[in-house]
Amino acid sequence: MSDVVLKDLSGPVVLLGAGKMGGAMLEGWLKLGLPPHLAVVIDPHLPDSVALALKARGVAVNPPAHVVAAPAVLLLAVKPQVAPDAVPQVAPLARPGTLVVSIMAGRTLAFLADHFPDGTPLVRAIPNTPAAIGRGVSVAVPSATVSTADRALASALLGAIGIVEWVDDEALMDAATAVSGSGPAYVFLLAEVLAEAGRAAGLPADLSARIARATVSGSGALLDASDLPAATLRQNVTSPGGTTAAALAVLMHEARGFGPLMEAAVAAATRRGKELAG
Ligand SMILES: NC(=O)C1=CN([C@@H]2O[C@H](COP(=O)(O)OP(=O)(O)OC[C@H]3O[C@@H](n4cnc5c(N)ncnc54)[C@H](OP(=O)(O)O)[C@@H]3O)[C@@H](O)[C@H]2O)C=CC1
Ligand SMILES: O=C(O)[C@@H]1CCC=N1
């Protein structure tokens, strides 16, 4: 965890887009001590119930621009497709020294630099949805204009929702997005297809869904608690000549197994990230 204390920020954190990811990050910051009066949400489409609940906690929601103090951070969490319209709406809020953090998939540091004055410190990051329970993974890359203090501030904001991995090479970001940004969806899909496969093998659907879900979450917890490599944990399940070995002969098939399938999936997500750069 970074030394930056969220309650001592020089100005508010302005969040553009408080959807699934931005909303989860906001919860993490508030939990970690960001005073609600230092949180500003700009999201014209927020459901009334969510906007009212945030306001009741002291968060400013869609305030007029002239009442927003110089932001310490502007965090861009709208969809990459709406960025060309949405980002210029908040860019004028930035003041010299405001740190801009984007979590938009695909959108590059060059895209951000086009929308902010020269010298603005910029961070492109990609978090993931386990952020909602403080178990997120963020991969982040700084622009050349990011100081040590800016980086510590970005680490504090991203660290409020999980672990942070910094990279120096922006070219890695689309592949990181494909692995950790999108990755939770692959794991949830595993729970779905395992449940469906159990049903196809004769289990009642609700029983199959319960044991598949608990198996995926329990295995994740074991992976987390253990120092052993994933391959060893897999081998620990696999008795020679037993049931797991029979299944793994299918799943680890060189041409049609999980390996080549996942490689193709991550490659497709990586390509899509490059397309979203605009
Ligand atoms: N979900 C994920 O797992 C991850 C998402 N990301 C990135 O986070 C960003 C947000 O994704 P996610 O939270 O899933 O998407 P959401 O659609 O849930 O959130 C985006 C929010 O921004 C709102 N919005 C749309 N237009 C504007 C605007 N002009 N000004 C302000 N707010 C606006 C949306 O409203 P409305 O819904 O009405 O359009 C919505 O509330 C994306 O760029 C995505 O690439 C990164 C990593 C993981
Ligand atoms: O699907 C997407 O594009 C976003 C980025 C990573 C996870 N969700």
Automatic annotation (TrEMBL):
Keyword Mitochondrion recorded: no
Cellular localization per UniProt: Cytoplasm
UniProt keyword list: Amino-acid biosynthesis, Cytoplasm, NADP, Oxidoreductase, Proline biosynthesis
Top EC class of this enzyme: oxidoreductase
Pyrroline-5-carboxylate reductase catalytic N-terminal domain: residues covered: 13-106
InterPro entries: 6-PGluconate_DH-like_C_sf, NAD(P)-bd_dom_sf, P5C_Rdtase_cat_N, P5CR_dimer, Pyrroline-COOH_reductase
Pathway(s) served: Amino-acid biosynthesis; L-proline biosynthesis; L-proline from L-glutamate 5-semialdehyde: step 1/1
Domain Pyrroline-5-carboxylate reductase dimerisation: from-to ranges: 170-276
Family: Belongs to the pyrroline-5-carboxylate reductase family.
HAMAP family, alphabetized: P5C_reductase (MF_01925)
Role played: Catalyzes the reduction of 1-pyrroline-5-carboxylate (PCA) to L-proline.
Protein name: Pyrroline-5-carboxylate reductase
Gene: proC
